[in-house]
Design goal:
Layout: H1 3-21, E1 24-25, H2 26-33, H3 37-49, E2 53-56, E3 70-73, E4 77-84, E5 88-95, E6 100-107, H4 114-130, E7 137-145, E8 148-150, E9 155-159, E10 164-168, H5 169-177, E11 181-185, H6 186-197, E12 206-212, E13 215-222, E14 225-226, H7 257-260, H8 263-270, H9 277-285, H10 290-314, E15 318-323, H11 324-330, H12 333-343, E16 353-356, H13 363-378
Parallel strand pairs: 4-7, 7-11, 12-15, 15-16
Antiparallel strand pairs: 1-3, 2-3, 4-5, 5-6, 8-9, 9-10, 12-13, 13-14
């Protein structure tokens, strides 16, 4: 291996450690990388010069002897993250330190065309780079799409609720803004974010389900690796046929999971059309009518069965729920977990934890930003640095 290639790998190792683990002293970096202190010092200095990392004085009271400087990633490097849905698009400027520097929600009267969505993103990028992000380094864009995405080229194969099919979304945004663009399935990106930084951090076997206005998607992590499947489309839990024990619980003959466990059905039952996730969560805690309470109970029964099936097949340590599914679970988290365990094979459910996404409303944006940051994290001295 050439000296240049080795240095590139060492820079990437240091930047990835700081990005994923948070602030670390030079001593801790030396221990984690196996490099000598002078090499670590040189690498940190190079990352500081690129404004990707900053160093600060340590808390001298916390250790004896000469304290080691502490390095941390900065918010100077920024990714634009977007999550288009049928009713609105959320955009954010996400720093390399995972800080949300800017956030906007664009409401639509009807699902947008891909070109309309790209135009909205481009307008925000132009306004941000001319204004609050003028002193920042824009690394790229990441888009979390509720549908099937071919990740290698960012083509949206099918986002049925948006009406997008075989759309070269990454190429469209890159051609409009010049930004390197990564596109992925929203739930898969959410699963990655929760695995790296959230409720599933440090867990090797995870099932993640995300509930949004467009339906239910998911992601699976097995032995620490995200499962993509042959085409990269793994995790479409919402399209599975749900097991429904009581025929009275079925609302759509032959329907799939997202037909039965539905955000639109919840907001309709609660009398809250257009409610955001926070308002929905509040209403779910205290349903206003017996009919609303029954709809909540019905959806929880079906969700529990779907999760039990996933537990039997995949044997995860943790099931993480995001979006309206998290709000549905939090109405009675212990009860939902018990219902899942009661329907799963006992051995498969041993030690199982069912929890909500700890990154909450930021999970999809952070996941999209991670996709945009990937080239920088792999090569900090490359053309993006």
């Amino acid at each position: 291996m050439s000296a240049t290639r080795m240095r590139q790998q060492n820079l990437a190792t240091v930047l990835q450690l700081l990005h994923q683990q948070g602030a670390l002293s030079r001593v801790a970096l030396t221990e984690a990388t196996g490099l000598n202190r002078s090499t670590v010092g040189d690498l940190v200095a190079e990352l500081v010069a690129e404004r990707l990392v900053e160093e600060r004085a340590p808390d001298a009271a916390r250790r004896a002897g000469r304290p080691s400087p502490v390095a941390a990633v900065t918010s100077h490097a920024v990714a634009v993250a977007a999550n288009p849905e049928v009713d609105a698009m959320t955009l954010a400027a996400v720093g390399l330190d995972r800080s949300i520097l800017l956030r906007e929600r664009i409401v639509w009267d009807a699902p947008p065309t891909p070109e309309d969505a790209v135009a909205d993103i481009a307008r925000r990028v132009a306004a941000w780079t001319d204004g609050p992000l003028a002193d920042h380094r824009l690394i790229g864009a990441g888009i979390a799409v509720p549908g099937l995405v071919r990740t290698e080229d960012g083509v949206v194969r099918d986002a049925p609720h948006l009406g997008w099919r075989d759309v070269p979304l990454a190429a469209l945004l890159h051609g409009t803004t010049g930004l390197p663009t990564a596109v992925g399935n929203d739930a898969s990106l959410g699963a990655r974010a929760e695995h790296l930084f959230g409720a599933a951090r440090g867990v090797d076997d995870v099932v993640y389900l995300n509930g949004g206005a467009s339906g239910i998607g998911g992601g699976v992590i097995a032995h620490g690796v995200m499962l993509g499947g042959a085409g990269g489309y793994a995790g479409e839990f919402g399209q599975n046929r749900p097991g429904i024990e009581d025929a009275a619980d079925r609302r759509v003959p032959g329907g799939v999971l997202e037909d039965e466990v539905s955000r639109a059905r919840l907001t309709s039952a609660l009398g809250l059309p257009g409610a955001d996730d926070a308002a929905l969560a509040r209403a779910l805690r205290e349903p206003s009518t017996p009919a609303a309470a029954e709809e909540i109970a019905r959806q929880r029964r079906i969700l529990a069965t779907a999760l039990a099936n996933a537990v039997n097949v995949l044997n995860p340590s943790v099931v993480v729920l995001g979006g309206f599914l998290a709000a549905l679970a939090e109405q009675d988290p212990d009860g939902l977990a018990a219902a899942v365990r009661a329907q799963a094979m006992p051995a498969c459910a041993e030690g199982l934890e069912v929890c909500s996404a700890s990154l909450a409303d930021d999970r999809l944006l952070i996941g999209a930003a991670e996709a945009a940051f990937a080239p920088l994290l792999a090569d900090p001295a490359g053309p993006l640095a």
